[in-house]
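Q: Start with the shorter request: fold the first protein.
A: Done. Sequence, then structure:
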Amino acid sequence: MSLSLSLRFRRVKQISRLLYYSGDCFKHQCDKGLNSLPFSPKPIFNDGLVRGFHFHQHRFSTSVDVLHKHAPEVDLLSFIKSSLDTLEGTDHYWLNRSVKNEEFFGIHGIHGTFLVLAANNFDCGIMFQKLKAIQERFPHITIMGIKLINSSDRENQIQFLMTENITFPILLSQQTFPQIKEGACYILFRNFKSPKIYNEKDVSPEILCQDILELQMQPSDDSDWLNVVRSTTWRQDHIAKDEYICSPLQNLVLYYPGCVSADESESRLFISDCNHHRIIVCDDDGKIMDCIGSSPGFEDGDFESAKLRRPAGSYYNATEDCLYFLDSENHAIRRADMEARLVETLYPISTDNKGGGIFNWILNKLGLETSVRNMEKSEVLDPKRLYFPWHLLKSDDDDTIYIIDRRFQTLWTMDSGSGKVDKIFEGSPKILEICGQLIRQNLSTFDKIPCDQFQQKTNNVFALDGLPHSDRLSSLTTLQNHMFICDKVRQRILKVNIESGVCLDFQLSNFGLLGFPYWLNSPLETCYAGGNGLSDTAIDHLQQFDLLPGNIDIKLSVDVHADIEVVEPLHESCIWRQARGAAAEITGMDDPRSMDKVGVAQQWYDELDDLASPKADPESEVTEDDLDQNTAMEDDKIRINSCVGTSPGTSEVIIFAVLYCKLRKIPNSNDGNQEKYAARILDFLSSKRSGKRERDSWNAYLLQSKGDLRDLIFTKLVHIRVRINTSDHPKAENDRDFILTDSTIKVNVLLN
């Protein structure tokens, strides 16, 4: 009898432990016993699709057994399918899946072709390069990565995303999948049926592409999805919109400054702001002088319209007054004429015809063109050709240009006169033999700098044998008696005196030249074509007015949050306006009264004219006193003036402005709580839809910095909409003419 009661008591105790550990205290207990268990112990339910459950579905005898039991293997396809509906669940979270692509996942989430890279770790950059090449060839298929994680790996996850510039979603999980027992594999399937698994890590991209083509040729009853794939609106350039990127660090002024070079004659620096796909030109004091590139893509032209994709190493040719640089993810060598402010592609040779007239230009701006640029991307890139180049060196005689990939596995030589890539060498020993002396020469001044002057992680994957600092080959340069170093941890450029080794203050300024960041829109020029292309951006203020037809002056007064301060006055180039419906935006027009009537059709053509009109002269230097009369800053309030002309009907005025801000420093305060600063920065930069685990990962990354996080400068978006109901025109005394009424409205905005 006593034995029976003892067994019952033990059984009740076990059940009570299970209930206790499955509640709020579970994570606390796990943190004590096993730091690699960040997930709560709940089962996955997906209509019977999942073939395994969490460990608490199994019988156990003590709590110690619970903490040390491994999760059973789960079918990978079933797990992916069950994870598409939510950004974060009990057993997963998406590290870089944004709200912008939720519609795609919701509507087509279980349809179409998928290519998945599943790995136990992400020390496999070559494999991701293959995925990027396939993504260029097949932009309509769904590509994703899956990684097994533990809670101590958060900083490395973020570092990997930024270093490799991952533009497809990454699904993180702690489950165990039978498909990746050998470390990593590719999985290809369609509509979550009949997966084909490639266990070879070095499987050829050509094999993957051939199998994708064969899979897409198979008949399917999913006619709607096929219609989407065949639609001419699917453009290769769509992958250039970075639609999967939702990193809070996008809003920093620099987002992975990977490379830098200098012009000694004019004391200029050329900073490759890699993940913003642009090159910033500044002087040795940090004052921005120009910017090369506007958004991700592949397009030549003036600095404002040229498109790059992750520019890397560069060098300045003083004789030609040209900057040669590598367009890494376009696999190209390009040249920027600094006097003419034009970008041209040296390699590969473009077969694109830029003709076609104004109609083709309009279709291109609206995203409706039926052809794409042919930059030799119709086939998967051959690794023997230029493939993800990163380092750019010039020979002593300036006749030969050396191009090296980031992992020092391939060397290409280009004749500077003809612009042709003539020789290719494989392997790091050959690279050392040919360029070793040149590499050591460029790195020689680095040994003079104390290592504690900056914080930078060294990835041995990117270093040559015998040259531990070779991964920094393109991320440092000398100008006069100073060295400038890319600090990829704190997203800044360091200025170090070579003689004393003292790190000097170097902060960028004159941000008005950078204009409106592309990553804050979707994009702006296609807003009217989509009807509401900016609907995924939170609205800070919405107000409605009933007015008479005529010209309306809109005076905005914006109160910024008490925790932030605006580092520079708002410049007109950082404001974007649009009027829709029975209104047209006429801010800055010399004679706005000439617009007697404003209709929808007239507005359409006016907006196209605005797109086609040349921009203001970018060579004119922007100063703090050179502010447009439509913007001002008084009493810590941002004032923005806009003017629209209205006709009878309804209209909406959309105003976007970008403020360059940083956390406010309280005078005479010794508060150095970096955790608090990181949390506040993420409050301003993170999407409200971001999950807790994703936020924790970004927070851990920010806390890597040893500097004061209050010095980080970031962009804050202001989104305001004014809706106007306009009645009929008042009649004049002769009953023939109509009366236009000038109105002024004031809008007060408080930023959250």
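Q: Next, the second protein, separately.
A: Sequence, then structure:
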Amino acid sequence: MSGAKMLQFLQSISRRKPLEPEGEVSNFRRCLTTLDLVALGVGSTLGAGVYVLSGEVARTIAGPSIIISFLIAAVASIFAGLCYAEFGARVPKTGSAYLYSYVTVGEIWAFITGWNLLLSYVIGTASVARAWSGTFDDLIGHVIANSLGKGAMIRLPGLAPYPDFFAAGLIMLLSGILAFGVKESAIVNKVFTAINILVLLFIILSGFIKGDINNWFINEDTLQRAFEYGQCGTGGFFPFGFEGTLAGAATCFYGFVGFDCIATTGEEVQNPQKSIPLGIVASLLICFLAYFGVSAALTLMMPYYLLSVNGPLPMAFTYIGWGPAKYVVAIGSLCALSTSLLGSMFPMPRVLFAMARDGLLFRSLSKMSSRQSPVIATLVSGIVAAVMVLLFDLRMLVDIMSTGTLFAYTLVAICVLIIRYQAELSEDSSLGKSEPFTVGGALCPPSQGTPRTSRNVSILTIATGNSRLCPVYFILYTDFSQSCFHVLQTLYENLFSFCPQVPFVPWLPTFSTFVNVYLMVQLGSDTWIRYAVWMAVGLSIYFCYGVQHSVQKQRPLYLHAN
């Protein structure tokens, strides 16, 4: 290939999309409110993990200090969330991290980001559907596993033990609801999320009533008598040391994955510049309070070394003599799985739609229904997820989902650095700092700085000495709640008064990038091999189809300008 052709090729894959593309019209129905977005973010993020993750981390990694692990994980997630919030206000269109990459770093990186998001969403959808089926099967005495395991067993490596037709049918049912209309889907999501929150409040209140503060400070003599239960650490609030708390934070981080689905609603929200940033921050804070409260209640109701890794909450209620409460937990778990499934399925067709509208994927995927829903993309994504849940052993694929999500988080953080750098260098930057723009009704000048708050969040102190818990736990949880809601109120005021921006640039986005990369390198070699196969398929589609059919190819003036 000659030098001129190579230069032309490099220019073609690095072309960027303008913020307001000529001829691009949004056909989505703007009907979602801020409450809809908060419910979507909470439902997507606060899935079945809140019923399982706490027991696993507390039992084997962190002990009672799991509450600190969740705090660290929440802070790291909020770093990524603030990056999404800023872009959600600047680029209020569908596509999430895919679109943010397209307008900032170029087409090839946008396609890679979109392809990573699709990987995360399709595996996430299939995994949650399988978990829903398994949880329901447990309640009915393993009827599904016994019947399909005997009559339709698959004996091939890497494939599922049997085709889970129940999970596949559930995916197609929800695909039909999503294809019917976004407002109807939001109503279903709010109902399930409300039930889930009520169940979690019941669990937290149970900790108020039956918790014992001594379970946070178990001595070594007690642990030696309980050694039959396995490795229990050294006792105290940090039985596995602060290293265990940090290791627990790395695991707990995945409990906050899912809020990015809010960023795909840019063309369906009534006021995206206000609702998207507020929805992201509010949903992350609510999820943190739920994880903090449940993990605190769990480790206070019974000693951490007795917790079950697979079903900690039913065992905890049995331990305190409230055995029938396990049915309440089961209902909450099914509702959490339902909202998590909707949260995984909701953004997938919108990323498909955005990529197809830009010509990087097949244009038929950008067809809209009469109810202003991306019906073809929704049904296709549902079919792909259903096939995944029927055929594949999803336990071998879940780590790849984390890879795709973390890659998207990393690129969004890098894009924040680039967009700020471009805005400072150029008065006529295409990314919006050269001209004033409005956010939530407020006019933001070109050089608007980072909003500041004058109040400090109170520092949590843990009082000890009582053997029963109620006053101590109530003060502890209330202090955290008030602090977090104070932060939320301050952010709310700033988001309506200033341009929503990531604070502490370049330090915060840089730190977020390092955290994401650190978590990615913890994944095993098998995960990276499977990830490479997925990326090879995606890049083949891009270079064989997307490069030639890209809408940006028809905009040579914009290409030369960049």
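Q: Describe the second briefly.
A: Residues 107-139 form the longest helix (33 residues). Residues 172 and 382 are 6 Å apart (CA to CA).
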